[in-house]
Amino acid sequence: MDSITVHGNGPLHGEIPVSGAKNSAIKLMAASILTDQPLRLTNMPRLADTKFLGRLLRSFGVEVTENGHGSEQETLFHAAEISSTFAPYDLVRQMRASFNVLGPLLARTGHAKVSLPGGCTIGARPVDLHIDALTRLGASIHLEEGYVSAMAPGGLRGAEIEFPFVSVGATEHTLMAAVLARGTTVLKRAAREPEIGDLARCLVMMGANIEGIDTDTLVIEGVTSLSGGDWSVIPDRIEMGSYACAAAMAGGEVRLTRARPDLITALTDKMTAAGVEIEPTDDGVIVRRDPSVRLRATNVATEVYPGFATDLQAQFMTLMTTADGVSVIHENIFENRFMHAPELARLGADISVHAGEAHVTGVDRLKGAPVMATDLRASVSLVIAGLVAEGETSIGRVYHLDRGFERLEEKLGACGADIRRVKGPPVEGPDDDH
Ligand SMILES: CC(=O)N[C@H]1[C@@H](OP(=O)(O)OP(=O)(O)OC[C@H]2O[C@@H](n3ccc(=O)[nH]c3=O)[C@H](O)[C@@H]2O)O[C@H](CO)[C@@H](O)[C@@H]1O
Ligand SMILES: C=C(OP(=O)(O)O)C(=O)O
């Protein structure tokens, strides 16, 4: 199991290219099941999550071919025939999004058996909304021994579905099933995250009929088949926001390229309020901060898009650990997403957590220590803290980090960070303690 070692060594200077979005890529990959034609995804991140989902797709008979390096990375998915519709526990437990193959398998073949999902243990994370929505589309669903068995021998049929609250996963999942359903589906209180817009636009490119993209009401007119095509994955707003926080924490000047800052104004507005300079450029932003001036404590509350993303909460909390004053951070999406707080405390941060609210009292400095990555975004928040902590910070269980950040050491190292990976025995991916 690898670990990452960081020595706090002052400001960052340089350029970081932002990769394609994990949370878009993994849903687009699942969409490749919907067609017997090849779907080529460009700007594909190479991550543990895309690797594991690729393995799952291969087990259904999908051909998966990776090509190119760096900004040229692409993957071709060809589901000419689906030879299996069974997604075993061992492949699904590794990452939550693999559950989202259920809808596409069902829409394409009329049946599927998929294990209940795993994913980061940041809350209970049930899938009742997914199951209710697929049932409304005409699927007959049974839960047995940790598996969801779904049948729709005569095909799915359109329905009007109003989600009781906003769910990114349930919106994407139902959308993928509805594009091949008979008739019209209306999804109300749909999530509007940019990765859902990316998925919907790709489906339209493949021949789907979807209106209301980027709004909270999606109207889908089912079609009998979809074609393939080429699609470029949108830039990863969470990766961009994480490096913006890294630059703001260490100080200096970092240019983030191939990015979409318009997708994370909720973060950049808060960073500006805290005293970070954010300058838009043609293809991203420059993040600038004078390290001799302390940031101002700033409050945030996580919300559905376009609010402050839960996936950036840990990184912003790290930024506040050395700010001047007390910041209050509300986590409104997940009930257990402050696991980074005790780890940051090991570096000297002063954080108290009460239910969904954390109070961060800024300290003068952090000091390096061994810490443990507890989930994907928590792990990058510890790397960010390590950039300024005196001495050595060693972060264990970085397989969490590898799920969502490609070449992190290389990208931060190119800006002057003293960061290196210490190789350990290989792990197959996020494990049972995930
Ligand atoms: C709204 C939101 O910000 N969603 C985040 C969520 O997406 P993800 O798709 O994982 O989660 P959802 O958006 O579905 O979950 C939102 C909330 O609804 C609950 N829920 C969800 C589905 C369901 O069937 N029943 C149910 O009760 C969840 O437990 C959670 O409290 O985690 C991802 C990974 O961190 C983030 O990228 C998404 O931004
Ligand atoms: C927690 C995440 O992923 P997952 O939903 O797969 O656990 C994430 O992307 O931050």
Automatic annotation (TrEMBL):
GO terms for cellular component: cytoplasm. It is found in: Cytoplasm. The active site is at C120 (proton donor). It is an enzyme of class 2 (transferase). Pathway: Cell wall biogenesis; peptidoglycan biosynthesis. InterPro entries: Enolpyruvate_Tfrase_dom (IPR001986), Enolpyruvate_Tfrase_sf (IPR036968), MurA_subfamily (IPR050068), RNA3'P_cycl/enolpyr_Trfase_a/b (IPR013792), UDP_GlcNAc_COvinyl_MurA (IPR005750). Residues 7-412 form the Enolpyruvate transferase domain. The modification 2-(S-cysteinyl)pyruvic acid O-phosphothioketal is found at C120. The keyword Transferase applies. It catalyses: phosphoenolpyruvate + UDP-N-acetyl-alpha-D-glucosamine = UDP-N-acetyl-3-O-(1-carboxyvinyl)-alpha-D-glucosamine + phosphate. CDD domains: UdpNAET. Pfam families: EPSP_synthase. One of its GO terms (biological process) is UDP-N-acetylgalactosamine biosynthetic process. Phosphoenolpyruvate binds at K22, N23. Keywords: Cell cycle, Cell division, Cell shape, Cell wall biogenesis/degradation, Cytoplasm, Peptidoglycan synthesis, Pyruvate, Transferase. Its EC number is 2.5.1.7. UDP-N-acetyl-alpha-D-glucosamine binds at R96, R125, P126, V127, D128, L129, D311, I333. Gene3D superfamilies: Enolpyruvate transferase domain. Cell wall formation. Adds enolpyruvyl to UDP-N-acetylglucosamine. Belongs to the EPSP synthase family. MurA subfamily. This is UDP-N-acetylglucosamine 1-carboxyvinyltransferase. It comes from Brevundimonas subvibrioides. The lineage of its organism: Bacteria, Pseudomonadati, Pseudomonadota, Alphaproteobacteria, Caulobacterales. The gene is murA.
